[in-house]
Design goal:
Helix 3 runs parallel beside helix 4 and helix 10 crosses helix 11. The protein folds into three domains: 126 residues, Rossmann fold (3-Layer(aba) Sandwich), CATH 3.40.50.2300; 52 residues; 57 residues, Homeodomain-like (Arc Repressor Mutant, subunit A, Orthogonal Bundle), CATH 1.10.10. The chain has a five-stranded parallel beta sheet with strand order 2-1-3-4-5, with helices on both faces. With 254 residues, the protein is an alpha/beta fold. The protein is 56% helix and 11% strand. It contains twelve helices and five strands.
């Protein structure tokens, strides 16, 4: 599983790329979103990422400056791979970013199949460098055996396929044939979150995308992402985002 840093200043484009990554089938643990290179550099100072997918033109620190910062600041062993996103008018910048060891680029508007192809190319490069998707990806992950990691990845995949249904930890631990308490401990070690927090965050992220990209009613959205009670969904959504779903949708439109 990979940690991906998605750096794009335009919110709707960022959401769109996020969804495309999710649908690509590429194994990943986490996608962290940043609005500019400065935010991305702060994330890279705090933790290790496998891939930085960055726009070229951004405020504060653009993609070229970010790539240069990565090349000059981070040790070779922990440098993430870089993929640039650019418009046709910025192709000179793409050639420049390749000097800082970017492995590929994608032209805007981003095509789903092209992005998928590039992401799998990145996965192949990482595997060639010996950083397989099953290796430990978090501090403390060394206690996870190869079998346990595979089971945890199966659990994550199962949750992502079934988050819209009323699933619980007992169901998922049974799915991967693991003791309930052991599953609970290993799941938190593997994902960095306990089961309920992981599921809740996933459901809210999915609901945000539906709110931004569709005109479906709040009640129907709550049901699609696994909340049986629309009022409870609204309460959880506000706790997670600071806004009720209806206000969040209106702000995204504006």
């Amino acid at each position: 599983m990979r940690r991906i840093l998605l750096v794009e200043d335009e919110k709707m484009i960022r959401y769109g790329i996020y969804v495309m990554i999710e649908d690509s089938g590429v194994p990943y643990r986490e996608i962290v979103e940043c609005r500019n290179g400065k935010e991305a550099a702060a994330c890279l100072e705090k933790g290790r990422y496998d891939l930085v997918l960055t726009d070229i033109r951004m405020p504060l620190m653009d993609g070229l400056e970010l790539a240069k910062w990565i090349y000059e600041t981070l040790e070779k062993e922990i440098r993430p791979l870089i993929v640039a996103i650019s418009g046709y008018a910025e192709f000179e910048y793409v050639k420049e970013i390749m000097k800082y060891q970017a492995v590929d680029y994608i032209l805007k508007p981003v095509d789903r199949e092209e992005l998928k192809k590039v992401l799998w190319h990145v996965e192949d490069v990482l595997r060639e460098r010996g950083r397989s998707a099953e290796e430990e990806i978090a501090d403390g992950g060394a206690s996870l055996s190869h079998v346990s990691q595979n089971k945890m990845q199966s659990a994550v995949d199962y949750i992502r396929r079934n988050y819209g249904k009323p699933i619980d930890m007992a169901e998922v631990s049974n799915y991967v044939s693991m003791n309930y308490s052991m599953f609970s401990a290993l799941f938190k070690e593997y994902t960095g979150r306990n089961f309920s927090s992981y599921l809740k965050t996933l459901r809210i992220e999915k609901s945000k995308k539906l709110l931004c990209s569709t005109d479906i009613g709040i009640t129907e959205i709550s049901q699609k992402v696994g909340f049986e009670d629309a009022r409870y969904f609204t309460k959880v959504f506000k706790e997670e985002t600071g806004l009720p779903p209806s206000v969040f949708r209106e702000e995204q439109k504006n």
